[in-house]
Amino acid sequence: MEAGGLRRLDAEDIPALGELAAAVTWNPALDAWRWMLGVGVAYGVDDGERLAGATLVFAYGEALAMLAMMMVRPERQRAGVGKVLLDRALASVHDQTVMALYATQAGERLYRPSGFVDAGSSVRFEGLPDVASAPRVTREARVEDLAAIVALDARAQGAPRALLIGSIAARARGVVVERGGEIAGFGFSVPEDGALRLGPIAAARDDDAAAIAADLARGAGVVRLDLEPGEEALRSWAAHAGLPVAVVSPRLVRGGAMPGERRLVRALAGRPFG
Fold first, then answer.
1. Which of 39, 153, 213, 265 could form a disulfide with 228 if both were Cys (CB 3.0 to 4.6 A apart)?
2. Span 39-54, pLDDT tens digits
3. In CATH, what number is assigned to the domain containing residue 92?
4. 173 burial class (0-12, 13-18, 19+ CB within 10 angstroms)?
5. What is the span of the domain harbouring residue 83?
């Protein structure tokens, strides 16, 4: 136990995380919490027999970390709980690590005084896609593609995310674009809260990114797509597919610019993960 009721959370805390999330009107399934705890580290502040607040950190080597799922019980907001959790999250990564997050309007008041600055905004599209038939340049991802997918993702992100990508691949459909015997692009579609999340998607070419999104969305019901800030090719694809904008989330960073070849990053694995 750390000072002031602050502690690292584990699988036994999943029901408490679910109850806390419901208190702030977030409703990830308990299985989603189990998955996130498998690829990240959670911290919580105890308030008697329940959690006053919690957050997660997804660290990708020493270059990049994502801060996510910052939750403080409504009656404990503006009482310093969020600051305690933020300080613990910052202390958990190396000094040279760039930490990023996608903020709510309320959350920005917490992050900016700690050195977080603007780094674009992610646009979420969500709805029933109208995907026209077209020649396919994609194929289904195979087990033997995973190493190349992980390598392309690391190049795009400037940080190793093998645990995250492997975890997604184990629970998702994946497609790739192969050119000259090399994996030139990839994407996954993951069931999420009644929708099909398209992402992560990475590709060097705009047309490959659009082909990956179209393949993943074809025949699906409601799809969800969170774009890398500044991504225009998939923004155009989503508009042509009739997907409405659901929300725009500012990305805040601390410790420098986002690493990696960001032009390769098309769609996020989800706002918690980047």
1. 265
2. 999 999 998 889 999 9
3. 3.40.630.30
4. middle
5. 3-96
